[in-house]
Each structure stands twice: as structure tokens, then as C-alpha cells.
Amino acid sequence: MDVIINEVVSTVRIVDQQSLLDHRTLATIVRTVTAAIDERDVRKRRREEEKRIPDDGRGGLSGGF
User: Is 5 exposed, middle or buried, given 0-12, 13-18 or 19+ CB atoms closer than 10 A?
Assistant: First the structure.
């Protein structure tokens, strides 16, 4: 069975019937991983925004520099 999560692609192979995940468990795993990826992306965007130095619109820097 193929599982695609954003940029991650993985093939899940069932070794035996004891290791088979039911659809509810698999859906929970997918939701958890997707939420973690979304959170990672939000943190990355925040860090990038914090590093950005705003322009005052006149070619200079705003913020009293």
C-alpha cells in the first residue's frame, strides 16, 4: 500500500497479519504526521519572517536603524 504525505512517499509492506494496521490507526498516523509537517513549516516561516529586515518604502530600513 502506498502512503503519500506532502513530499514524503513510502511503501508499507505487510509482513504478517499480526502487523496489519487497521484503517483507523493508519488514518491517525497520517493525521499526526501531517500536523507535524504543518507545524514544522509554520515554525520555518516564522523564523524567516523574524530574520527579515523591513523596508521603509523609500529604499531605507524601518525600525529606527
Answer: middle
pTM for the predicted model, two decimal places: 0.52
pLDDT digits (tens, 9 = 90+) for 13-40: 766 666 677 888 888 989 999 999 999 9
CB 12 within 8 A of CB 4: no
DSSP the chain: -EEEETTEEEE----SGGGPPPHHHHHHHHHHHHHHHHHHHHHHHHHHHHHPPPB-SSSSB-S--
Amino acid (1-letter code) at residue 61: L
* Cβ-contact 14, 20 below 8 angstroms: yes
